[in-house]
Every structure is written in structure tokens, then in C-alpha cells.
Design brief:
Largest sheet: 5 strands, antiparallel
Number of helices: 14
Shape: rod-shaped
Distance between the termini: 43 Å
Number of strands: 5
Radius of gyration: 42 Å
Oligomer: single chain
Strand content: 5-15%
Structural class: alpha+beta
């Protein structure tokens, strides 16, 4: 009985397989030629698809924090020595390398701005017209830019176990950016990564220079007001002491015997106790005070001359800031040209003028070193030799197999339709 069941099952399987092969054999032309047609079509389409090349590069960031936080230290009379030293100490503790994370996050809003990105791209020689069109079509949100720009932190998540061993004054920072771009040719991909590096530098440069101008302008105005008040106070004190000296001399004239009073005597240390000193001794003290006041007043007047030149420079920068637009390199060139304009008719043989000229020159040289020398590509932009996509051979293989299986299914659909067409179209009457 068992043998009979096995034989029947085998016979049924043979019937099913023979039916399947019969259907396939009947439609072999559809399947074979259809698959060949799909194969050739996929080859044609894959040949039309452009190759995509990916270029990469690592762009090192230089720390502009010292330049930003140091504004005002060179302005005379604005910061005391203790405050200036405290500012520098805080700066040095923020980040030994790279850009402090808070500063990076504030500046990154600039280079993740799609409108600014498109404007700078249209002004850059590295971006061709075709690529510029793609940028306008594809770069519409910050996420579209963010996928090509990835920050590299000094201390990554993998270093968390080692954080406990770091000094408390150390803080995390962004040491550079991994830049990448995909284009239809190796040259275009590499050129675009170069543009991204220039774009990042321009954003950092613009934010730094903007803060430099705003802080320089406001700090100069504050320093000039403070300087003027101090000059007024010193002039008043100088006048008061001069009047007092005349009064004491009048006392000596009226009481000549007072000049012979022993100067070594006990006096009160409370306020006003000095008036009990011998008149001659008081005159010596007043003369000494007047000498100090004249020296301080001369220093304040010297500071006023320097502040006047600073104010002229930063006022011109401030007035032209809105006209230059948000372009860092153009703003940097503007600062240079304004410096030349301000000192064109100045007498550089005067110490006060020469000192301001040197301070501004040092600032501009520091900007140049920070953003045009130290901020640069450490590696790349690479010129790719092999495209990353599309995988044309895979497209042909997948398309051929997919078309084959679809045509097999279609052959069975046609077979079923021919067998049931009459019943479906003309159903039997009830």
C-alpha cells in the first residue's frame, strides 16, 4: 500500500513538472528574446549613465580665538594689565589646537546657510557653470551642505575613557573638517572639494573680521570716552594742587617764621592730617604730586592721539562693512586698503602714529597667517581614478535576471489567460 502512494506522488510531480516545462517551451521565444532584449537595453542604458567620482580632503582649521578675544588689548587705556592677562589666560585654556566647539557651532551657521553657499559658489572660479546649476538645484537646505562637510573633533566618542585623564583646562575642539564631493569627472570632484575648503575659510574669516571690526569700533569709542574723563579729572586735580601750592606760598609770605618749623613732628594720619605738616614740607609734597599728575596727563594725551587714529580706522571699517557683503576675503582686502588710506597722510615719524600702524599691521598679518597659511588642506583634495558608481556590470546582470523571471511569470499568465479566456469573457448561462 505504501509503495502505491509513493508511485502516485512521483507520477503527480512528473505531471506538474512536465506541464511547467510545456508552458515554458511553448513560450521560449518570448522568454529568450525578451531576456536578450532586456540585456541589450540594460547595456545601452548603463552606457548612457555618467560615471560618478568622489573626491575627499581633510581641511585643517586654525584657531582664531586669540584674535577674536584679544580685541582691545592693544587699545591703550581700555584694559588694565590684570584684565588683559586674564583674557589671554582664558583663551589659552579654551583649546590648545583647532577651534573650540562653541565657536565652531556659531560659525558653522554661516557655511551651512544655502543662500550664502550659492552666492559664494557663483563668485568662485573653481565652480563651473554646469556645477553651479546643479548647486542651485540640489543645495536648498542646510542638510544638503552638511552631507559634504563633517567636523573632526580632537577627542572623539571612542576616547571617552581617556577623558578622565585629561587636564581640567583641556576642552574639546574641532581640529578640521572632512570634505567630500561627488561629480561626473575626477577634475570636477577635486575642484569642488577645493572650493569647499575656500568656502569654509571664507566663512571663518568673515565672522572673525566682522567681530574684529565691531569690537574694535565699540572698544575704541569706550576707550576714548574713558580717556577723556581721565584727562578732565587729571586737569582738575592739577588745577586744585596748583591753587593749593599758591595758597601755601602765601602762608609762608604772611608767616615767615613758619619756614623754620621743625619738619619732623607728629601729625594725624587721618584725612586732612597732612595740613599740620610744615608749609615747606607740604610744598614739597604738592610739587611731587604735580609732577606725577603732569606725567600721567602726558601719557593720557599720548593715548588720546593713538585712540584718535584707531577711531578713524575702525570708523571707516564700520561704515563700509554693510557695503562689502558677507565675503571674508573681500572684507580682508578692504581692511588692508582702509589701513593704507588712513595712514597715507599721517606722519609715521611720530611714535603714537607709528605704534598704531604697527599694531594694525600685526593684526592683519595675524589674520593672513591664521586663515591663508595655517588653515589649509592637510590631505587632498584627491583626484579619483576609479568611479564609485554606478556599478554598470551589476545593473546589467540584475536587469537580465529580473527580466528573465518576469518573462517566465508572464508566460504562465498568458497560458492561464488562454485557458480561461472563454469562461471569463462568455460565462455559461445559469
Amino acid at each position: 500500500m505504501a509503495e502505491t502512494n509513493i508511485t502516485e506522488e512521483t507520477y503527480d510531480d512528473e505531471i506538474v513538472l512536465s506541464s511547467i516545462f510545456a508552458v515554458l517551451w511553448k513560450r521560449w521565444k518570448l522568454i529568450i528574446f525578451g531576456t536578450m532584449g532586456a540585456f541589450l537595453l540594460s547595456i545601452g542604458i548603463s552606457l548612457l549613465l555618467p560615471w560618478v567620482y568622489r573626491s575627499e580632503g581633510f581641511y585643517q582649521l586654525s584657531n582664531p580665538t586669540k584674535m577674536i578675544a584679544g580685541i582691545g588689548i592693544n587699545l591703550p587705556g581700555f584694559l588694565t594689565k590684570e584684565i588683559a592677562e586674564n583674557e589671554i589666560s582664558i583663551i589659552n585654556k579654551k583649546a590648545s589646537i583647532g577651534v573650540p566647539v562653541p565657536l565652531y557651532k556659531s560659525i558653522s551657521t554661516q557655511f551651512f546657510n544655502p543662500n550664502r553657499f550659492q552666492v559664494i559658489a557663483s563668485q568662485d572660479e573653481l565652480v563651473g557653470e554646469e556645477e553651479l546649476k546643479k548647486i542651485k538645484d540640489n543645495v536648498r537646505t542646510a542638510a544638503d551642505i552638511n552631507k559634504w562637510i563633517k567636523p573632526v573633533y580632537a577627542f572623539a566618542k571612542e576616547d571617552a575613557r581617556e577623558f578622565a585623564q585629561l587636564s581640567q583646562v583641556e576642552s574639546n575642539s574641532v581640529i578640521g573638517l572632512n570634505l567630500a564631493y561627488e561629480a561626473d569627472s575626477p577634475e570636477n570632484a577635486s575642484a569642488y572639494v577645493s572650493f569647499l575648503g575656500n568656502y569654509i575659510r571664507d566663512c571663518f574669516l568673515y565672522v572673525t573680521l566682522y567681530k574684529y571690526i565691531m569690537d574694535g569700533y565699540s572698544n575704541t569709542v569706550s576707550a576714548m570716552n574713558k580717556n577723556e574723563n581721565e584727562i578732565i579729572d587729571h586737569q582738575f586735580e592739577l588745577l586744585q594742587n596748583t591753587t593749593k601750592m599758591k595758597d601755601i606760598r602765601a602762608i609762608l609770605t604772611n608767616y615767615p617764621e613758619s619756614a623754620k618749623i621743625e619738619s619732623r613732628q607728629l601729625v594725624s594720619v587721618q584725612d586732612g592730617g597732612s595740613r599740620f605738616l610744615a608749609p615747606v614740607t607740604q610744598l614739597v609734597g604738592i610739587e611731587s604730586t604735580l609732577a606725577d599728575l603732569r606725567r600721567d596727563l602726558a601719557e593720557l594725551e599720548r593715548d588720546r592721539e593713538k585712540l584718535t587714529v584707531f577711531a578713524e580706522y575702525f570708523s571707516l571699517c564700520f561704515s563700509k562693512l554693510a557695503k562689502i557683503g558677507e565675503h571674508g576675503e573681500s572684507l580682508f582686502l578692504l581692511l588692508k586698503s582702509i589701513k593704507d588710506e588712513v595712514f597715507k597722510n599721517k606722519d609715521l615719524s611720530k611714535d603714537e602714529v607709528k605704534e598704531v600702524f604697527n599694531n594694525l599691521s600685526i593684526d592683519l598679518q595675524t589674520f593672513d597667517l591664521t586663515f591663508f597659511k595655517n588653515s589649509r588642506f592637510i590631505s587632498g583634495p584627491t583626484i579619483p581614478t576609479v568611479p564609485i558608481k554606478p556599478r554598470k556590470s551589476l545593473i546589467v546582470i540584475v536587469s537580465s535576471f529580473a527580466s528573465f523571471f518576469l518573462l517566465v511569470i508572464w508566460a504562465f499568465v498568458l497560458h492561464w489567460w488562454q485557458g480561461n479566456k472563454k469562461a471569463i469573457i462568455s460565462p455559461p448561462a445559469l
